[in-house]
Amino acid sequence: MKRCIVVAAAALLTAAGLLTSAPPASAGCLYGGAFISKCDDPVQPDGTWQRCVGVARWVPSGFSTHLVPEKHCGPMGPGQPPGDPAFTDPPTHID
Question: Where is this region: Disordered (predicted)?
Answer without folding.
Answer: 70-95
